[in-house]
Design a protein that fits this description.
With 462 residues, the chain is an alpha/beta fold. The chain is 45% helix and 17% strand. The chain folds into 3 domains: 255 residues, Rossmann fold (3-Layer(aba) Sandwich), CATH 3.40.50.620; 133 residues, Up-down Bundle (Four Helix Bundle (Hemerythrin (Met), subunit A)); 47 residues, no CATH class. It has a 5-stranded parallel β-sheet. Strands 6, 7, 8, 9 and 10 form a 5-stranded mixed β-sheet that branches. It has a 3-stranded mixed β-sheet with strand order 14-13-15. Strand 13 and strand 14 form a beta hairpin. The protein is elongated. The mean pLDDT is 96. The protein binds adenosine monophosphate and zinc ion. The site of adenosine monophosphate has 18 residues, from helix 1 and strand 11.
Amino acid sequence: MLKLYNSLTRKLEEFQPTKKNQVGLYTCGPTVYNYQHIGNLRSSIFADLLFRTLNYNGLKVKWVMNITDIDDKTIKNTTIEYGPQANVANLRTFTDRYLNAFKEDIKKINLSIKSVKFIRVLDVVDEIKHFIKSLIKKGYAYKTADGVYFNIEKYQQNFGDYGKLVGENFLKGQKLGVRVRVDEYDKENLSDFALWKAKEEDDANIFWENAELGRGRPGWHIECSVINYIAFKSSTTDIHTGGVDLIFPHHTNEIAQTQPIYKPFVNYWLHGEHLLVAGEKMAKSKGNVYVLDDLIKKLNINPLAFRYLILTSHYRSKLNFTWESLQAAQNALNNLYTEISAYEKPKIGCAEYEQNFLEAINNDLDTPKALAVVWDLIRSDYPGHAKLQSLLKFDKVLGLKLRETWKASQKIPATLKKLLTAREQARAAKDFQKSDDLRHQIESQGFIIEDLSHGYRLKKKF
Ligand code: AMP
Ligand code: ZN
């Protein structure tokens, strides 16, 4: 039984998909105005772990991720690069760069990228216009000189749950009716938010036309309501993920915009905690960010060591990034690779460890516990082929590329084979000086040799 912590009810709940064995999973994706930092990538890894865990439980998952290529930041940066004549085609070219970089990064950290359906906002503007017009028609949105706004008061009268994701009494004592035009704002500035922003001079030539809405462009929040609506054919999304910073206003507003069209919008809301640096949230606005390439260049790390580091903490815990912890993750991953290199072909797994692993990940994706099961299994007395069988199974969730690594480690160069044979002969002849010399030569080729009562065990150093 898979249990997930639902932010909407603030409880650990047994997961039940709306359709039998079929899950609709939606992830709020990147804003492509710059490179994603490793904090953003933590959120992507969390979504990937969830996707893999659902699969591990035999569920078929349709996973959709939006790409925010229309918002205040992408437009501002496009106009900086292209000047006052910047247009929609320029916006696409500009955001392409960061979308491609994002895809490269998530490939490196082994996200199940082939299973993700990416939907760009630029490709659904017509559907967004249509959605906004439906909200106006139903009386939940109103036009002003500077665009179309969502009417929170009207929503509250009919649904009574605005802000439930933040807390049950979120609206108590709040003044309604004020308006906010910017995409990002905090709880203190709770306001009717923009669905459609009338064109301003700063937007250059980046705008869309519509007879009813006027010349303008979508606000930020509406995209996710519309993309869910399109992707899941206006039926309830099973699970929606994002970082905790999206609870308000983004996810709160997604719920409000969608429920007048269909309800419930989402059954399970899952939020990943932040990656911190020196105790502070990693954020471009704070100037404390690293990108994946910084890690690779500075420590020459395998990007999967970053994935390993993320697995060491639970997704609902804050994680403070340090170079030391990254180095420790790299060492642990290397040790894991070295251990499995000595294992024979996988055969018949270890049932008790498989049970423990399943219990860990099914308990709200407890990856620190799942990693502990991995190491307990490695230290156990089971034969190598049994350990490997179970570890390869676990790797369907962990995504540390154990199969590829093990396979590559089994290729023994001919020169090494000669040294191994010569060393066996020296040992048989009790020529320990020679056998020791040969051990050093073997080690200099990147392998470790351990003598057993019968024969030896060869491991590859990572
Ligand atoms: P953005 O590109 O800003 O739209 O963010 C993409 C994802 O990264 C969202 O789910 C954010 O909630 C998440 N995010 C932003 N900063 C952090 C951080 N420091 N740690 C973890 N996730 C983050
Ligand atoms: Zn979103």
